[in-house]
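Board notes (copied after class):
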Amino acid sequence: MRGPALLTAPRLSITQIRLRRISSCGSIAHASRSQSPHPLPSSSSKPGPTSGSPPDHRLLAATQDLFITHPVSPGSPLFLPHGSRIFNKLISFIRAQYALYGYEEVTTPTIYKRSLWETSGHWENYKEHMFKVTGREAEETERATIGERERTEAEGDFGLKPMNCPGHCLLFKHAAGGLSLRDLPVRYADFSPLHRNENSGSLSGLTRVRRFHQDDAHIFCRPSQISHEISSTLQFIQTVYKVFHLPPHKLMLSTRPKEGYIGSLEEWDRAEAALKASLDESGQEWAINEEGGAFYGPKIDATLTDSGGKEHQTATIQLDFQLPRRFGLNYLAPAPVAEQRGILSTDPEELKESGFVTPHYNGKWPFWLSPRQAIVIPVAMADEIVTYARHVRRGISGLPEETGRVNANGPLAMSRRTFNVDIDESAGLLSRKVRAARIKHYNYIIVVGERNLRAKTISLGSAFPRGQEQGGGEGVEKSSMDLSVEEVYQKFVELESEYA
């Protein structure tokens, strides 16, 4: 009986994908004191190409108050409240897909002893890219003999983790004693931060960092389950790419290199056959890259083409014969096969060059991911209008009405959806407030006036390209409707549920 196979599941770089530009699907509503509702123009709900070079994500971050960098922690962005909103939404999105694909979330340490990295092979092959830390054990070296000193120094060496593979192997090895083959596959997912010691001169915004989060997961399964898990990964890739409006991708199978590989020919043939079968079942076109596999196993690469015609590898599915052997994961059988896979590239340099999302969106986030989903602006600073504007803001945010007492309504239900809605009560001209909100790319700008106060409604407008469904025309048709606060809230729920 063969042992379980280890699969490294989709990895989505939270830090680096955050500033990929996503379309703005929201419209802008405007209702003044003396005029009928008149929606201001907004961007199309679907991405469209822009002219010129892609905008610099660092300028976008400054304009939208998303993150800052500081010399006291180079390569480790500090996320501001609006940037943290995107960060948390991305985690929530991937976490929801984990429930669909059967993952269990785990939390693993940021720091491990040198001995673990020696077992995994990182200390030998990846040490220059790791942050090394010295523990208290090293303080004992001065009082130790020569032999004890070498041993104590090794015990005092630690490394910040650059990836989660070793930790997940430890988790499975711990759990394996109580499992049977019928309990497989076992899938672990992890959002804990990773650190890589990039050269200081190459650090830049979010495209080259030292600290980042990625959607990192590993699957332990029987060899007979590998083909199914690969097919599931291909479906996962399509699901995520569709949500982020990425263009169609190409698939490439890279086979055993001519020399320098590990494992037997039988293992390689079996692994390549499993990958080919999964590619055939996917229904997508694919090609073979002869002898292009890694030394530890064959792989499937997904590539996207940017607006300049340059291709970028953004997803990979790899089979690894080495890691399970290093950790002794020969559960019920000889050493299993490891499959490593990722949905979007976690290589900062590749993300730096990628242009297949940025030119289309220019910071106009879709409603579900937007850090500024709506803003309420009172048309005048009269007390009754401002009070109603605050009522509107709390209602469409999904928050209970203020009672004047702290926590009078009890805790908010975890199942209650809440939205990122701000209110502008500053002094100044209404036109300037609206213009400032548009620069910040709010999906909805709701101007509340006396008419809304009397009717207890919100005038919600919509904007979309004329003939969009047929793919023609560039004009914009506008419509508006008077809705209650609860109706607007339910509309927001619908938009977020559809990843619109």
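Comment from the instructor: The chain has a mean pLDDT of 76. The first helix runs from residue 14 to 17.
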